[in-house]
Design goal:
Largest sheet: 6 strands, antiparallel
Number of domains: 2
Strand content: 25-35%
Helix content: 10-25%
CATH class of the largest domain: Mainly Beta
Oligomer: single chain
CATH topology of the largest domain: Immunoglobulin-like
Order of helices and strands: HHHEEEEEEEEEEEE
Radius of gyration: 24 Å
Number of strands: 12
Shape: globular
Structural class: alpha+beta
Mean pLDDT: 87
Distance between the termini: 55 Å
Strand order of the largest sheet: 2-1-4-10-6-7
Length: about 220
């Protein structure tokens, strides 16, 4: 008799568990199709949108530009107004309060940094960037010397020898992955240009000068 009661209790518990799991699956389970959405957007992505963000930054004389793609498929500054697209032949002033750094998965993130506008304490320098922001990176225009798409989480790179008097920039471009949390969109370091070109910058970032940091969040 006791075994029969235990058997019935197990059946009831199993039934309740199946019902609970069924309700959860029906109302709460949402398959993660982030990569499918991003790959569909990538197939239609024109690498020159990366170039558009750079043009906006330089037209508006910004230290850095955080860009988005609006509903008309136009590259714009990512502020509360989503304004400032590329204007050829003239400069249209932006309404720029501050950049919105909170993203949703599958959104586009474009970033340009104008090294010439940063406070660099060297006449010649090397520069490195670090980013751990989860992106599915896009292709870049040919003049950027980068063409590959993919997930390169996290990112790090260093430049060749630069002169402070000339324009140089860093760029990021990609669609946001479904990894909620706070991240570094970009952190930029500079090093004295008198260092040898084979210096181990990556393992000596603490010896460089941090000249910019932009944080962001995925919700």
């Amino acid at each position: 008799m006791e075994n029969k009661i235990i058997f019935v209790a197990v059946l009831i518990l199993a039934f309740v568990l199946i019902v609970v799991l069924g309700v959860w699956f029906l109302f709460f389970y949402q398959p993660d199709n982030t990569l499918e959405i991003i790959e569909a957007k990538l197939s239609e992505f024109n690498p020159y949108k990366v170039n558009d963000c750079e043009i906006i930054m330089r037209q508006q004389n910004l230290t850095y530009a955080l860009c988005a793609i609006n509903t008309n498929n136009v590259t714009v500054l990512r502020n509360s107004y989503l304004n400032c697209s590329v204007s050829f032949g003239s400069v249209v002033p932006c309404i720029l309060d501050e950049f919105n750094t909170v993203f949703q998965p599958t959104e586009y993130l474009g970033l340009q940094v104008n090294m010439q506008k940063l406070d660099i304490p060297f006449e010649s320098y090397y520069t490195c960037y670090y980013s751990d922001f989860p992106l599915y990176e896009t292709a870049f225009p040919a003049q950027y010397n980068e063409t590959g798409e993919g997930i390169y989480y996290s990112g790090f790179g260093c430049s060749s020898h630069y002169s402070k008097e000339f324009y140089h920039h860093w760029a990021l471009s990609g669609f946001v992955l479904n990894k909620k949390g706070e991240y570094t969109i970009i952190r930029v370091y500079v090093f004295d240009g008198s260092l040898p070109s084979n210096y181990d910058f990556k393992n000596n970032l603490n010896k460089g000068v941090r000249v910019l940091e932009v944080m962001g969040e995925i919700k």
